C-alpha cells in the first residue's frame, strides 16, 4: 500500500505542503528581485517617463558653453540638432 495522502506517504515529507512553501519562497524571491532591480534604476537618475528628450543634452551644451569648452557657433549647431 502507498499509505495516506494521495499515494505520496511519508517519503515526501509533509506531502503537498512542502511544495506550497517552496512555491511561496520562489514567488517572494522573484518579487524581491523585481523591486530591487526597479529601485536601483530610480536611484541613478533615469526616470524615462518624465524626461524630455534633448533637455539634458541642451543643459550639458549650455554648461560647456559657459565653461568655454565650445564656441557659440558650436552651441547653436548642437541646439538645432536637439530641437
Quick summary:
The chain has 3 helices and no strands. The chain is mostly helical. Keywords: Membrane, Transmembrane, Transmembrane helix.
How are the secondary structure elements laid out?
Blueprint: H1 17-43, H2 55-67, H3 72-82
Helix pairs in contact: 2-3
Structure notes:
This protein has helices spanning 17-43, 55-67, 72-82. The protein is mainly alpha-helical. α2 (55-67) runs antiparallel to α3. Residues 56-83 form the SHOCT domain. InterPro entries: SHOCT. Keywords: Membrane, Transmembrane, Transmembrane helix. This is SHOCT domain-containing protein.
Key structural traits:
2 domains, 83 residues, mainly alpha
Rg: 29 Å
Going by helix content, strand content and strand pairing, the class is mainly alpha
| Total domains | 2
Stretches where pLDDT is under 50 for at least 5 consecutive residues are: none
Output the helix-strand order.
Answer: HHH
Measured between the Cα atoms of the first and last residue, the distance is 79 Å
Largest sheet: none
What is the number of helical segments per DSSP (H or I, 4+ residues)?
A: 3
Q: Quick one: overall form?
A: rod-shaped
User: What integer is the average pLDDT?
Assistant: 75
* Oligomerization category of the chains in this entry: single chain
Helix content: 55-70%
The number of strands is 0
Strand content: under 5%
